[in-house]
Amino acid sequence: MEGTTSKSLRLDEFFQRLGAASVVASFGEAYRLLCSTLDQVEDELSGLPNERERWLTLDRMFPPQSDRMSNVEGCDVKRFDNVRHITYIAGNGAIEIRSKRRKKGAFEVHFSKPGLDGRSISVVCPQLADTNL
Amino acid sequence: MKAKHMSPVDQLSHDLKQQFPDAGIEVRKTEDPNGFQFVNLVVGDFEVGVEWKPNLGFGISSFREDASPTDGVFEAPSEWYETERAAFHRVASLVFDQRSTKPRQAKISEIRHERGISQDELSEQLNVKQATYSKLERREDVRVSSLRRVIEAMGGKLVIQAVFRDTGDVREITFQ
Fold it and tell me: Under DSSP, is residue B77 helix (H, G, I), strand (E, B) or coil?
């Protein structure tokens, strides 16, 4: 699976590798893990250069940057918005990637990984269990 | 109506709420004043995501009910507009037409099934044997003229694009 692989397969590979990686204990470690894993998958499989300044035109997935980040009120969780999904990263290293819209009463969780203490995003921040804050 | 002292995203949200009072509309802003701001609109099973940033403009992607749940994830928006007015008109037209900003890929047979046309009906319309048409659907390489006839027989129009991923340039190919 090298060279130019479809975006859906690359995304599956990214989720698989992110899930298989060791759990981490902090926001910084989790953010770096997410960035390095996505960059690695895209370097190997997209056939496109890692030129972040061309993110508007390259058909390549790029990790979310600080200009997409906001704090989740009342929780030790930061949120990165993209056009259709949200990436939550907690202070304990937990990561969750989910849809912005609710379908049939629930958000679509694309990926979820607990932090080193075993707590997932919705345990670190119970309000996030049924709403996007 | 242009409201005073609104950010471009607040203005867009305001205008969309007036145009689509029954739509679900959410606005999200990052703490960084130079960061992104977002408007997400849902009408029934149709959704439009908009992101705006100073000096960058409005990025828009829309998704129909049949889109994969992960379409658009970690992708840049499909289209960009400089002004709030242009973004508003584009979002409104997408909602009215329920149209995706990114076309779905499909095989000829999938399009034929979606349109409820049998191979017998299509081959009769094309004046070829059913077996001949069936082979065409299974081929990996099809003549452009044959493909055009098939698409037109199903009520569509064949458009061939050259997409240059390094520059983002998209050109429609014409023959003579």
Answer: coil
